[in-house]
Amino acid sequence: MNEKALSSWFRKRRESTVLDTAKEHLLKILDAARDMDTAIKYVEEGDNPNALKAIERVCLAEKAADNIEIRMHESLATGDLPPKEREDLMHLVKRQDHVADWLKSAAMNLQILIEAGVKIPPGTWAMYRTMTLKAVSAVTALKALMDSLGANNQDVARYAGDIDRLEHEVDDDYFTVKKNLMLSDIDPRVISVLRDLLYALENSLDNVKESSELIHILITASG
Questions:
Q1: N or C: which end of the chain has fewer CB within 10 A?
Q2: CATH number of the domain within which 32 lies
Q3: How many CA atoms lie within 13 A of 121 on its CB side?
Q4: Of 74, 96, 81, whose CA–CA distance to 26 is shortest?
Q5: How many folded domains does the chain comprise?
Q6: Number of other CB atoms surrounding residue 182 within 10 Å
Q7: Residue 175, domain extent
Q8: Residue 72: which of 26, 34, 33, 35 has the closest Cα?
């Protein structure tokens, strides 16, 4: 299906509602990404109480995104789209929701570290913050890509390229942080949680990229 055809779906009343809800869904995911970045920022500054508040907001945003996903599935199930297109859109929504799921996982691992009161070597959180800032940028680009559908082909391609670049950069960041952890003298139990946090952040970016790729499939499959 080419982009003009995809755009025509959302001119219909029910399908335009689906698109609006998809954008609402992405806004909640963006909230989760921003609050995850804020949590890391506060931990880096030694402000654990505000970090915990930011973590709580990540969890609330993830729950809100889940609720919107349910609404979208209900709307798609009763809509007028052909089965294949409906299935593709449902898959896209699920992939987007995985971004929020992984951000919540990162937040919960950070909470464990805070509540355990463990000491983390200087510079460690700065490396994690590099990744959370890129997560915010990637989700922002995904939202902009969605907004550009049916309006500006060049913008769609540009935002997809931005997401691809950010995902590759985070892959490099992942191995840099992992190497630093393995060469440190941090308690192995703490390293285990830090690696889970690292893995969750990387996976959140992977799912942003996969969401972008699914949108590409939607607009080019029959084009």
A1: C
A2: 1.20.58.220
A3: 15
A4: 96
A5: 1
A6: 10
A7: 3-220
A8: 26
